[in-house]
Structure formats: C-alpha cells, structure tokens
Amino acid sequence: MTTLTHLQRLEAESIQIFREAVSESERPVMLYSVGKDSSVMLHLALKAFAPSPPPFQLLHVDTTWKFQAMYEFRDRLVAEKGLDLLVHRNPECVERGINPFDHGSATHTDMWKTEGLKQALDLYGFDLAFGGARRDEEKSRAKERVFSLRSAQHRWDPKLQRPELWHLYNARKAPGESVRVFPISNWTELDIWQYIHREQIPIVPLYFAAKRPVIERDGALIMVDDDRMPLQPGEVPEMRSVRFRTLGCYPLTGAVESEADTLTGIIQEMLLTTSSERQGRVIDHDSSGSMEKKKQEGYF
Amino acid sequence: MAHASDDLLETDIDAYLDRHEHKSMLRFITCGSVDDGKSTLIGRLLYDSKLVFEDHLVALEADSKKVGTQGGELDFALLVDGLAAEREQGITIDVAYRFFSTERRKFIVADTPGHEQYTRNMVTGASTADLAIVLIDARKGVLTQTRRHSFVVSLLGIRHVVLAVNKIDLVDYSEEVYRQIESDYREFASQIGLDDVTCIPMSALAGDNITEVGPNMPWYDGLPLMGLLEDVQIDDELQSLPFRMAVQWVNRPDLDFRGFSGQISGGTVRPGVAVRVLPSGRATTVDRIVTFDGDLEEAVAGQSVTITLTDEVDVSRGDVIATSLAPPAVADQFEAHIIWMDDHEMLPGRPYLLKIGARTVNATLAQPKYKVNVNTLEHVAARTLELNEIGICNINLDRPIPFDAYGENRDMGGFILIDRFTNATVAAGLLHFALRRSDNVHWQAIEVDKSAHALQKAQKPCVVWFTGLSGSGKSTIANIVERKLFEQGRHTYLLDGDNVRHGLNKDLGFTDADRVENIRRVSEVSGLMVDAGLIVLVSFISPFIAERRMARERVGADEFIEVYVDTPLAVAEERDPKGLYLKARRGELANFTGIDSPYEAPESPELTVDTTSMTPEQAADLIIDHLRQHGFIN
Ligand SMILES: Nc1nc2c(ncn2[C@@H]2O[C@H](COP(=O)(O)OP(=O)(O)OP(=O)(O)O)[C@@H](O)[C@H]2O)c(=O)[nH]1
Ligand SMILES: [Mg+2]
User: What does CATH list as the number for A6-191?
Assistant: First the structure.
C-alpha cells in the first residue's frame, strides 16, 4: 500500500479544487501577487491541467509600490513560462498618485488593492477568481469557505456562507455575482515552505536574508527600496541582514533580522519564531476585526 | 507557532522536515450544545501546547478585556471565534478551521457552532472529520443538541467519538456527576451505532486533562485529551475499495491527447487495467496515468491524476471511470437520508439540482417517508423537512447516475441539493440504495399510443395552462374557451383548481409544500390526458415559476401553452367573487396568494391576457386564435 504524505494529499486536494472551479465557471482568473503563496498556487495550477496550460489568465493588481525585486521576478517568470498575465493599476490612484506616505496605509490599500481588484474583475467580466489565502493566516480567514460567493458589489457576507460538504463545491451564482476560490485554504505556512523546498519552486529573493538598506520606523524595519521613500530627520538607511516573511508594498512590509539565506534556514527560523507571519504587515494591525471588514468590502 | 518544538528542529532541520512530512494527520471537530465550551477547548489546547504566536497572545489579552466572557481573564474562545458577530455575542456562528501539529501528529480541527440555528455549519465541519469531540456541560448533561450533533456524527460515518464532560470545575470535580453523564451518553450512543466512544472529564477553562492529567481528578485514570488525539488509530481504507474516479475535466491540449482528469476516490489504478465508463457502461483499458511530474506506474485513492484510455470512448465531465471487476451500480431512483439546511422548507415535487461527484442532475424528492426525532430517535411522519431536520426520502433523477452507498464510498454516495433559483445549497444527502422500482415498473408498451389517440380525435393534444391571482378570471375564460372548442367538435377537458381540490387533492392545504404537490399531481394528470389525445385546460393559481416549469417539462414544452391571466391585485381584490380576499384581509385565511403568500408572474408566457382591457369573450378568442395559428386545431 502506498501511503500518501501530507503534502501529496494537500496537493491533490488543491488540484481537485482547481479543476472543479474551472469546470463550473465561464471566465476564471487567477490572482497573482508575486508572493510565495502565489508561487505555490501557480505551481499547483500548472500541475492541475498538465499537459494543457492552465485555462485561465493571471491577474496582478498592482500598486506601483511593490518591491523592485518583485517586479523583476514577475517579469522574468512571465517570460520564461510564457504566462498570460494581466496587470491592473487603478487609474484613479495613478492619476492622484495615491501612496502610503501622504494618504495613509488604509487608504492606500483600499484604493489600490480593494478598489483596483473590483475594477479589474468588472472590467474583464471574470466570474471566478482564484486567491492564495490560507486559513491559518488570520482568524476571519479561518472561517471562510473554499468557494466563497461575492455579491455583484463584490461583498462577502460571513453570515450567509453556503454549507460546504465533503469535496462538493457549489459554484452557482446569479448574473453579476462571482466566486472567490481558495485552492490552498488548508495549507499552513510550514506546508508552503516545505512544498517550495520539495518542488524547488522559484520565489522572490527577498525571502532570503541579505544585506539591505533599512530604517526602523514605528518598531518595524522598513526597506528603503527606492528614492520615493521620504526620510524623516535623523533617519539614515543602514545595511542590515534582513529578510521578509510576507511581501507586499515595500513601505508597509516589515523585515525581520535574519541570517537565513537558504530554504531550510528559513524554515528553521520560522519554526522557532514566536510571532505570526502577518505581524510584518502594517495594515493588519489597525484593529482586531480589520481583515473581516476589508474582506466584506471586497479585499482578497 | 503552530508546531510544537523539538530538538531535531535545532540540530537537524532536514531530518525534522522529513519526519514532519511523514507524520499522520487527524481531522477532528468539536461539537455539542451551545456554550458547552467547544471554542474554549480549542483555544486552550493551542495555548497549552504553546502553539499560539506571541502577537496573537497580545491580541487575545486585549480582546479578553474588551469582549471576553471571563471578566478580563483570558477567554480562550476568542482565539477561534474570529468573526465580529461571534465576538460580540460570545457564540460561534460558523465553523473555524485551525491547524497544528505535535511531535507525533498533525491536526486539522474544525470548531463548530453549538447553536441549533447553525447546525448546517456543524455539518460542513463534520463532513470531512475522522473524529468528533462531543462536549457536554457537566451541569447540564446530555441535551437535545448533544443528541442532534451525535446523530449527525453517526450519520456522516465518523467512527471515533471522544465524549468530553466539560466544566467539571463547576461541579467540584465530581466523579459521580461524570459517571452519570457517561452512562447516559453511552446508552444514547449505542442506539445510534456509535460504538467507539472514549470518555474524559475536563475543564477547558482551567486546563484540567487537556495536555496533562492534573491533580484535581485523581479518580480519572485515562489519558489527557491531547494524548487521546495522538493515539487514536485512524486507518485509511480508501485504497482497498474498488477503483473509482469521477471525471472532472476533459484534458485536450491538442488533437493527439485526450485525457480525463479527476481525483481517485477509491482503490488503485495501473496502466493496462480493464475499466468501465459509467453510466454508459463502455468497457476499455487504462493506457497511461499522466501527471505534471511524469507518468505513473500506479495511482491510489486520494491522488489527482489524468488518465488516458486505449479506446476512443465517449467520456465527459461527471462520468465515473471504475474497475470493470466491480463497477458501481447505475440508477435514477434512490432512497436517501436528507439533512435539510435551508431556511425555506423542502418542497416535495419541486425540481432541485443534485450534485454528486463531478455531476449535476435534476432531482425531485418525494414526501419524506419519515423524519427523525433526534431526542427519541422515533420516526415521525412528515410532509416536508424544515431547517436542520433529518429524514428519509425517495429521490427521482432525470438521468441515471453511477453511485455506491455512502457507507462504502463517501464521494460516490454523498450529494448536495441546490435550489435552482436562489443557487443556495439547501441540503446534504446520503445515498443508501437504488429503488428497484425503476427496473421493475417498466412503461407498459401500449399499442394504442398517443398519436393514435390524437389521430382518432383529429386534433393535436396540448395543455393550456391558465395562471393568475385568485379572482383574476381564469375559470371564466377557461370555461368560455372550452365551450367554444366543444362547439367546434374538439375533445377537451377542464381541470379547475377548486374542483380538483375537492377530490384528487383534498388532502392538501395551502402551505408552500402542499402547493407544490398540488401542481405536481395536476401536471401528471394533464400529462396523461394529453396522452389520451385531449386538449386540456388547466385553471390553477399556480403561483410559483418553478412548478409551472415542472408542469411544462412534464407535459413537453411544445405541447404546453402558458396563459397569464394578468389582473392587478387591486382589481382582483375589488372583484372578489368568492369573498376570499375579504377573509384573507381579516386574517381568517392563511397563505392566501397575493396577500401573505407570493405570486410569481410568468417571465415569458405564450400568451398574456389583460383582463382590464378586454372582455372574457375576447380573451377566449385570442386563445383559440393562438391554438389555430400553432396547428393544434384547424
Ligand atoms: N467554568 C468553566 N467555564 C467554561 C469551561 N469551558 C468553557 N467555559 C465558559 O463557557 C462559556 C462558553 O464557552 P465557549 O467556548 O464559547 O462555548 P462553545 O461551546 O464554543 O459555544 P458555541 O460555539 O456558541 O456553541 C464561556 O464563557 C467559557 O469561558 C470550563 O471548563 N469551566
Ligand atoms: Mg464556540
């Protein structure tokens, strides 16, 4: 008898979800955010449909404030793998130059990411979007179904979730409504890293420790990624050995001091750490229910 | 951190990871009545195992002060109750999934709500569990909701149960109280076929018997809860089942490759194995097992693969590829357990969508044979099932499907029902066996058939279906139409709501369920009359789109003429020929269409007659013209 390992089971489950979602929607799309979860999700999508290519486009909802290394990584990957990637930047944000320094992290995130995402979904008429959220990330995510219905206004109603039994997913919806599907719902942070390790999935180098210019602000280590970052009096970027546990907009993503420059080193550090991965995200600190609220408004 | 630390982690990370990858995995739920301490238990389990991140602990301390139920002390339930509404009310509404591991095992726990209203969310969590922790408040003992959840656990086939008698701190750690609850529960459990039950007294709040056996209950000589969870034997029997794979997606990258993608739900498969494609029954052989990482020599239950076949057989999404040594049965009528999960009651006779495996078909449910009283386990007669009720029903599908009994293979016997209009998942069901009826009751091959009847009468039979509010003028118009047809020598019959309700349907009232059954019977009767060659005039309020569609499907769309007798409510109420509106307004008539029961106007009827702008006579002529133009009469 062959015993499947835990990762093999998770992989098979995710593939089943991908195939089900594609079969039950008209115009699916995969949200690609360039982070490690997106990398794993993309890898699973390639597996789910091989030898065919994944039967959907990728969508990057960009904010123009991601790390330079993320853009480089993204563009290289798209070229190498011949991926069909759409990039959407909220034109209103572009025009008004929305940024976290002048407008605050909440407005920045809401306008670029939440509004940007809704715009893109409406613009292309996508009726199903894959997202790389995991239930172990945050307590309101722990409550969400794998197939999660959104109203025509893209809202999530946590009190009206459909029962979801066994491996049977109900993707039916009225015109205008859409479904968000989370193929890696049941993966943990450790599973993600272990899978990246096992499958040798390429990830953005920022996850590995290196000397980088950082300043300390409000208790977080922020990397000075380009010259758009206004320095306050007395702030002098310092070269420190740091890495990132999650990646987002560089001014809103805290680094951790680390020497871990290999995958196993990262995993080891992660297992020994006493803080959660989202701690590095400035936006999640706002309030205890902030993620649920953002999700209700249409955030991924 | 969600992983208990150990030495290997620091000394040999590769060895650690290898071991971690090969740990077994237990999926369990916590369930039981509201406030018995389920969420507190999970929070406590994570906390005591040092599996809570520091930043989460800081948040927990703050939250406990703000919304906690423990007067500012740590309220562990807040670690799991993640929705704003839950924290406000101090209850769990939806299932939360938490992930953790110890040195010995990995766990996925689903913390389910105890509140009866949210039973469907408990069912969601339970459907994928290997073990259930049933909690009981030591002060309250076995409650209805304890029984209901235990019944669901048993029905869904969860083999292992841990009975946790919680809040034992509130009864002075009394062994007597514990023993009494244990014996009450065991008695109930044995009646519902739960025979692997382990009992444990505990305090989730104080932490007794959670990760360690504490000093407060010297009389307890078993393992702490964590030890029980690490020890329980879970065997993966799926691989020893006959091979089954539901085809989710046909994989066609180019003209040379045609593969069938799916997840294996039972058994094992190898190239060269003889298989059948169901429901067609076509026999063929597995050629290759294709994956992104190369072809496989063997694939087993649980794996997602793509299979190619040696013959060009027709296979599409929803079909099942199965071993030809033991293929699944194929049928279109079943007896099934139904767990109703929607706020709107089940409507026998109304078509729902049934999804099983990768296949979705139309299904109608007969009136339940009975529902189960979860307290007494009695079988109670029922006309319908309401939210959270569990019953046994016969199901009729519009196409045959391959299936195995749920008890043998969950993926081949478990289904959901979806409402065709709201798209809500309204029920879960378990197939047990096919009804032999469909095999035995063949249609009598009748020599004088439908067309012979029609020819004899020199007309094309059809149903003219009048729908509209009470008092809209349906019967008046239908009567005139019938008279005119009769005068022309046509063979007709008029089925009128009031008359049919005096005889054939006199057992039916005016609830939604009865209205559906009313229409189902009338569609069947009018269908038979069409077979007899008649032009049938049906005059029924028939307020629901779904039932009129059902009638149309039963009769056949090209023999069905829907006439919408369009009269505004105010006008009908003004006419009030039978004085019914007056009664309804006075509250003497419940469920009256237009007043306290909805009327869904047809979206695209063949004909609409506006009774405010034409006389009944003119309306009748309009209908007869339509019949002539469409060749029903000449
Ligand atoms: N004294 C005492 N109180 C407890 C114990 N376990 C839980 N409680 C308290 O009981 C209350 C309900 O606990 P929850 O964990 O929210 O109960 P629940 O079963 O999850 O409730 P629902 O999910 O809403 O059904 C809270 O105030 C807990 O602090 C216990 O062992 N002893
Ligand atoms: Mg709870």
Answer: 3.40.50.620
